[in-house]
Amino acid sequence: MIINSVNLNNFRNVSDMILLPDSEVNVIYGQNAQGKTNILEAIWLFTGCKSFRGSKDSEFIKFNNEFSKISLNFEDKIREKKAEIIISDKKKVLLNGVEKKSTSDFIGEFYAVIFSPSHLSLIKDGPNVRRKFLDTAICQLKPKYAKTLSAYRKIILQRNSLLKDIQYHSELYDVLDSWDEQLAKYSALIINDRIKYINLLGKHSEEIYSGISENKEKLTLKYIYAAENTELKDVNDIYSFMLEKIKSSRNEDILLKTTSVGPHRDDIEINIDGISARSFGSQGQQRSCALALKLGESEIIKSITGENPVALLDDVMSELDEKRQDYVLNHIKERQVFLTCCDPSQVLRLCKGKSFLIENGNLKEEK
């Protein structure tokens, strides 16, 4: 997957910009609030996903303008494509000149992975952030997983509602059996997919982190769930175990009026040399871990789709020492990279590729 050109019109603080990137590494540097992240955000929208900054469409339109237009010329292994997004009172989406219903129609057409400072929450914050990362990554590759996840969430809501009423209506105990079976069924499907994904992610992320740390540190990932210390071979084993676990926790669930067992309580354990990265990792190590997870995600996309996603790395260099910065600049192989930073001295260590200075939404190619 290679981007040949990016064109922005009235997007954020950019009036008119054409970016002709290198097929390998592209460094976009400049002071804060000049428009570096805006370029990455515009590219990301062509994946069919929402803004990684949580922005609304109206926020993309430059102040005192009526519309915003972004276009992307890119190529996969088969052919060159052109995608366009025009935002005004309504949104218009085009792929190779053919109008589409929404940007979600770009899913499967253009692949990218994004790293932004907010992704440090994967390491620093609670389990909910890591579960969301896991579910989002799997949903992009396995549409059925999204339906399973939706069904599971509905069951949790129904079961929790039942738990609140059951102390007043003893006849609901029989109904609870049915919900427990459904809960175990969908729990098993979700856990099975998550374990498979974590096994793949762990393999790729460990290799990437080893490169970032010059083989001095080892990253390991482990999926933590109810059967943490029990060997289960397949989805049927997981189902049987989870059903037993759910039933054994029934009295506690009735007392607490909530479901205490299931994938909504699970987590990913992230360790460096066997020690928790969240509790004991330095800022540089935590940033390296998050980067390794995102680049590991891109390796999985490549293995499944055959396409190497474009890597969008926003402010990734902060808090990395010089050797780790060198890995990011010069040793991410076989993919196109767009990287933003503030410090112009970091650009000097770029061995090949292009660098661009951005000032007040205006781009100037430096190399």
What would you say the CATH architecture of the largest domain is? 3-Layer(aba) Sandwich
How far the N terminus sits from the C terminus, by CA atoms, comes to 22 Å
> Going across the major beta sheet, what is the strand order?
2-1-4-5-6-7
Number of strands: 15
* CATH H-level homologous superfamily name of the largest domain: P-loop containing nucleotide triphosphate hydrolases
Give the helix level as a range of percent.
40-55%
How is the biggest beta sheet arranged? 6 strands, antiparallel
Count of distinct structural domains:
2
Q: Report the portion of residues in β strands.
A: 15-25%
Order of helices and strands: EEEHEEEEEHHHHEHHEEHHEHEEE
Description of the molecule:
By secondary structure, the protein is an alpha/beta fold. The protein folds into two domains: 2-111 and 309-365, 3-Layer(aba) Sandwich (Rossmann fold), CATH 3.40.50; 122-279, RecF/RecN/SMC, N-terminal domain (Glutathione S-transferase Yfyf (Class Pi), Chain A, domain 2, Up-down Bundle), CATH 1.20.1050. It is built from ten helices and 15 strands. The chain has helices at 36-44, 121-124, 127-141, 143-165, 172-212, 235-248, 250-256, 277-280, 283-305, 322-330, and strands at residues 2-11, 14-19, 25-29, 68-75, 80-87, 91-95, 98-100, 112-115, 219-224, 267-272, 275-276, 310-314, 337-341, 354-359, 362-365. Strand 10 (267-272) and strand 11 form a beta hairpin. Helix 5 crosses helix 6 (235-248) and helix 5 (172-212) packs across helix 9 (283-305). The mean pLDDT is 90.
